[in-house]
TrEMBL record:
Root EC class: transferase
PANTHER family with a match to the protein in the record: SERINE/THREONINE-PROTEIN KINASE NEK, SERINE_THREONINE-PROTEIN KINASE NEK11
Domain Protein kinase: 57-270
SMART domains registered for this protein in UniProt: S_TKc
UniProt keywords, alphabetically: ATP-binding, Kinase, Nucleotide-binding, Serine/threonine-protein kinase, Transferase
Source taxonomy: Eukaryota, Metamonada, Preaxostyla, Oxymonadida, Streblomastigidae
Protein name: non-specific serine/threonine protein kinase
UniProt catalytic activity: L-seryl-[protein] + ATP = O-phospho-L-seryl-[protein] + ADP + H(+); L-threonyl-[protein] + ATP = O-phospho-L-threonyl-[protein] + ADP + H(+)
Length: 270
């Protein structure tokens, strides 16, 4: 880690299995083919294999800004039809570097059509810029809102599709010894073809050398042991997915209380 991680890094493409659709836009076979074709085309494009700098990109819009830095949609000037998300994070203090390096390590380690694809990274001034795939379909929170107006049969079909695809992403993560630790609707993204992709690995950690990890993440998606024992394992991700599926079917988090303390108590006792 350390400063060595701030050097420019290019992404890689690794094979993974095909999966069903999260959207009615295309069939499962078409979905997988489209995802594979896009990855292959990008891998063969000499411009996309170059190492870029901040000046090679142009801002399209800013998605969010906070203490963590900025998240922007940007297009590559040499390929203006190609848009990416760039996460621009502070890279000054030892803690800044540790946090950014951990996320970068996870992104590079997890390369699959089931996760948000890492493209490249480069330093710019006092920041580190992490370039990732742009999922234009938003995230699962929007789908939860959309599904409130669906008939029960369609809700069940769509929830199955979500369950299958997110399970595939967790299979990839857990096979690599990684626990996401912050699985929630806002961190599951939808690409232009309706494929679901797990993203935001800022809290993800490697569990390979540990029996469990300390609690992190969004409280109303954490399992009981995270609240009572400060403990998380691969099972914590599965719990979070279960909560998400119930939320898809009902429109509400099953443990939601009037306050966060009430929500945590519901998780501990129900």
């Amino acid at each position: 880690m350390g400063n060595s991680q701030s050097k420019p890094v290019k992404g890689q493409v690794f094979p993974v299995e095909a999966q069903p659709k999260a959207s009615s836009k295309a069939s499962p076979q078409t979905s997988a083919k489209t995802a594979w074709e896009e990855m292959l085309v990008d891998a063969l494009d000499p411009e996309l294999q170059k190492q870029h700098t901040w000046s090679d990109y142009e801002i399209v819009e800013e998605l969010s800004r906070g203490a963590f830095g900025r998240i922007l949609v940007m297009k590559l000037k040499a390929r203006p039809e190609k848009q990416f998300v760039i996460k621009r994070v502070p890279y000054v203090s030892a803690n800044d570097k540790k946090t950014a390096d951990e996320e970068l390590k996870m992104l590079k380690k997890v390369q699959s059509i089931h996760t948000v694809r890492f493209i490249e990274s480069f330093p710019d001034g006092i920041d580190l810029c992490i370039v990732m795939e742009y999922c234009t379909g938003g995230n699962l929170r929007g789908l939860i809102t959309e599904m409130k107006n669906m008939i029960e049969r369609d809700k069940k079909i769509r929830s199955y599709e979500v369950l299958f695809q997110v399970l595939m992403s967790l299979k990839v993560l857990h096979s690599l010894g990684i626990v996401h630790r912050d699985l929630k609707p806002e961190n599951i993204f939808i690409d232009k073809d309706g494929n679901l992709k797990t993203g935001d690995f800022g809290l993800a950690q490697d569990i390979a050398s540990k029996s469990y990890l300390k609690t992190a993440g969004t409280k109303n998606y954490l399992p009981p042991e995270a609240h009572t024992q400060n403990k998380m394992t691969e099972a914590s991700d599965i719990w979070a997915l279960g909560v998400i599926i119930i939320e898809l079917l009902t429109g509400v988090n099953p443990y939601e209380g009037k306050t966060m303390d009430a929500t945590i108590q519901n998780i501990k006792t129900n």
